[in-house]
Amino acid sequence: MSVIIVTAADDAYFGLAWAMIASVRAAGGRSVSFGLMDLGLKSEQRASLAENNVQVVTQTTGLARADGLRFPAAEMGYLARPFLRENFPGHEVYVWLDADSWVQDAEGYEGLAQAARQVGAAVVAETAHEYRFWPWLLGWRAKHYVFGYGLTRGIRLWLRPQINNGAFALTAGAPHWAVWQHYYQDALDRARCAA
Questions:
Q1: Looking at residue 69, what DSSP letter applies?
Q2: Which region holds residue 72: left if phi is over 0, alpha if psi is between -120 and 50, else beta?
């Protein structure tokens, strides 16, 4: 069963992405495929990844901007996540790990992949006590939820537990992809109208 672990990096985050990939391999993930979304790598960094069997793509997204321009590369690290299937086709399970992740044990990514196989998706909730409480972050989240989803839906989302977008897994056939893409575009459209 084909599993790909995907991350994203620019030249400044290349070392972190490389360390994350090395940590997976050291934990026993030698047969796992790797993909990396190029957010601004140098040519020698891309070549080094390719030599080490990491598929590098300049990510695309089906999301549209009102002005017709391309999204900045730094934003593509977030905006292209709902399009992992399109950017890295041909895998059964897509595991996303942020470039600054470190895999201590294969159970981490294997657990995400296995849970996704069972129900379509696996996510990590930000409910552990290790997550710090920052008052400014509560305000920032509330503002952006309301800005992107309107007052009623925004406050309802803000009050729910947060899902970490830095570690998740989805199967290729999961219905979550289309819903995620729809709501990203909906939030972009609403934000565009409010600007």
A1: P
A2: beta
pTM of the model: 0.88
C-alpha span between 45 and 10 (Å, rounded)? 9
CA distances from 35 to 9, 78, 186, 194 (A): 11, 15, 27, 35
Render pLDDT for 105-126 as a digit per residue (tens, 0 to 9): 998 899 999 999 999 999 988 8
Count of Cβ atoms closer than 10 Å to residue 56 Cβ: 18
Distances (CA, A) of 180 to 88, 175, 183: 17, 9, 5
Q: Do residues 111 and 122 make contact, with C-beta atoms less than 8 angstroms apart?
A: yes
With residues binned 3-state (H G I as helix, E B as strand, rest as coil), the percentages for the chain, rounded to 5, are: 45, 20, 35
C-alpha span between 101 and 95 (Å, rounded): 12
